[in-house]
Amino acid sequence: MVFRKLPGVSASGMGLRLSQKFVFLLFLSGLVTLCFGALFFLPDSVRLKRIFLSKTETQPVTVGSGSENDVREHLKRPREPEQHPRGFTSAKGASSSSSSSSSGGGGGGGSSSSKLKGSNRKPPPPASREAAPPAAAAEEERLSGGKAQEDLTLSRSRTDTVSQRATASDQGSHSDTFSYSGFTACLLKAPLGRDYGKPGDQNTEQRREKVKEMMKFAWDNYKRFAWGKNELRPLTRNGHIGNMFGGLRGASIIDSLDTLYIMGLMDEYNDAKEWVKTSLDLNSNGEASLFEVNIRYVGGLLSAYYLTGEQVFKDKVLELGEKLLPAFNTPTGIPRGVINLGSGTSWSWGWASAGSSILAEFGTLHLEFMHLTELSRSPIYKEKVMNIRKLLNKIEKPHGLYPNFLSPVSGNWVQHHVSIGGLGDSFYEYLIKSFLMSDKTDDDAKRMYYDAMEAIETNLVQKSPGGLTYLAEWRGGILDHKMGHLACFSGGMIGIGADDGAPEKRQHYLDLAAEITHTCHESYSRSETKLGPEAFRFDSGGEATATRLSDRYYILRPEVIESYMYMWRLTHDPKYREWGWEAVEALEQHCRVESGFSGIRDVYTTAVSHDNMQQSFFLSETLKYLYLLFSDDDLLPLEDWVFNTEAHPLPVIRRNCQQGGATQEQTLPE
Ligand code: DMJ
Questions:
Q1: Catalytic amino acids?
Q2: Distance CA 477, CA 459 (A)
Q3: What global pTM score does this model have?
């Protein structure tokens, strides 16, 4: 109406002629088409997902941290205490909702000379071909009877869930259930050795006892000040919850179960088991790192079950495994990094390039998921990880290398950063370990591992002017002459893979493993504290030293000691035990505080500043690998066990033995 009265404006719609209107409409529709089309060109666009994809796909990329990979790659320095309301995750670093318990006192010891108390009980007699432990007999009883198990499906709404069925089947109604005694009968050797791995000489025995005392000290303080929380803050004497485990609690308990058991700390193990029975609540509703929950909780519970035969660990791990499955509901089946354990919705990490998933995260599920299928007799877990395998096998790899970021929507690499350290590391580890854990039948894993090794040797392996061998990182063809502490696991990995390589390369692989382990040891011995930095470089005149302030910290990581342990088992060169002992002394001197062990902020000064965090992997990995280093090889023999990336031992699945067969006989749909 108003328009009609205006001078110069015609009655026909704002004074436009018909031809003008047509052109205008044409322009408008072109614009709309352009905007709409543009959405599809945005890589894995969050907005696009919100509008067009299903519930699992629609979540905005909001979770900013939590994975160890994130911590490794994006924080580069020890975490500071922070306060966040429950469920909120900070953009970077760990959130904390520490309960403050307190009150002075040294909690369990205090000095490096503290005596070991009440910790020399032996674990139950080791399982062997001849004699299964009592728990196994009980398990066998439960397994009597028989009825075929139906196909298992994934629906979260169904009451008859995968774990419930597996549990029900253990009550005696199915014949094709996992048999614990069948499993123990398939082991080549007793898991705990002839005499719990007691070493032949007294000096080594004393060193081993020292490591056991460290474990007891770390555990006692956790128990006293942080019981039920995820990790101990040893300076403030309280617990840390963090945001990696989706509201799950007790990470240090789950991570410690097998270490306590193999060390014969049976009172402590029993306390831990009791906590799992009464207090491990899997009905949490928070945002969890799929990777971290898998390697620590699933891995820890699986190992505890295989070592002890205690039904509670099996029940819990199957219940938890099922909660992780919705993370795989993506167009490619490549899981996203973050999952809400209650609702099943999943996200990519906010920091991950264009909504991508991380190689070391989705590539570090295979071992645990194969065992979930083994125990549950449901093929679903195996299918999920085999699907990842197939995609990675098929996809084109730049120079044969696997970049760290992949889109779970398109299945394409998102950028070309390659690293054997953070973001890539345990993917390679799980290839060779999948082969070993399959009783050397998983030929795809074997081929992919040795092909990857060729590409790594061609593109990443470097020799410094001072003669140190190291693994550089690769950014679209340009080398970054840096090696992370995390990459130091590769000495052990290349070592355990040496024997199955091409005959002409076996000695070469063993030499390469020794050289890398030597370089990592150099990164320790060139520091004031004799502990290694988070990352060390081979440029600007430096060799195996951190040149950046932000790389100087040490957070009780295991990787260097892990390689010492494997190299000791493979070569029995006494230097590896000596290097391990140097690490024990350095840990005692610089990381032991009154109420536990703490990371330090700068390995290049002996006036240490502690980061106030006793990481759960210190109990699970660092101390376990040290203990194994000073034990006889028959404690968890490598013929029967592979260690997951959190050092939880998982048994080899024997092809020609009646271990269960669920993972052996299945063929996957194409
Ligand atoms: C552990 O959680 C695992 O070893 C993981 O693979 C890498 N990071 C930590 C230890 O540094």
A1: 534
A2: 9
A3: 0.78
Give residue 541's pLDDT: 85
According to the model, what pLDDT value does residue 659 have?
A: 56
For ligand 1, whether the C-beta of 645 sits within 6 Å is yes
CA of 12 relative to ligand 1 center, distance in Å: 71
Does the structure show a pLDDT above 80 at 449?
A: yes
The mean pLDDT value for 389-411 works out to: 98
DSSP states of 479-541 as a string?
A: EE-EEEGGGGGHHHHHHHHGGGS-GGGHHHHHHHHHHHHHHHHHHHHTSSSS---SEEES-TT
CA dihedral over 166, 167, 173, 179, signed as positive or negative: positive
Residue 658's pLDDT is: 61
Cα 511 from Cα 517, distance rounded (Å): 10
**The two structure tokens encoding residue 228:** 């039920």
Residue with the smallest CA separation from ligand 1 atom 11 is: 557
Specify the ligand 1 atom closest to the Cα of 425. Answer: 6
Q: Roughly what angle, to the nearest 10 degrees, separates helices 443-459 and 425-437?
A: 140
Q: Is 433 in the pocket of ligand 1 (CB under 6 A)?
A: no
Q: How far apart are the first and last CA of the chain?
A: 66
Distance from residue 409's CA to the centre of ligand 1 (Å): 27
pLDDT digits (tens, 9 = 90+) for 409-446: 999 999 999 999 999 999 999 999 999 999 999 999 99
On whether the CB atoms of residues 538 and 547 are closer than 8 A, the answer is no
The CA 71 to ligand 1 mean position distance, Å, reads 10
557 CB near ligand 1 (under 6 Å) = yes
261 CB neighbour count, 10 Å cutoff: 23
Q: What span, in angstroms and rounded, lies between the C-alpha atoms of 196 and 122?
A: 8
pLDDT in tens, 561-586: 999 999 999 999 999 999 999 999 99
Q: How many CA atoms lie within 13 A of 40 on its CB side?
A: 4
Q: Which two tokens stand for residue 2?
A: 């108003």
Residues sharing a CB contact under 8 Å with residue 481, sequence separation 6 or more, in sequence order: 462, 470, 472, 537, 538, 539
In ligand 1, the atom with minimum distance to the C-alpha of 616 is 2
Instruction: List b or e across 75-92, with b for residues whose CB sees 16 or more CB atoms inside 10 angstroms.
Output: bbbbbebeeeeeeebeee
Confirm or reject: Cβ of 357 under 6 Å from ligand 1: no
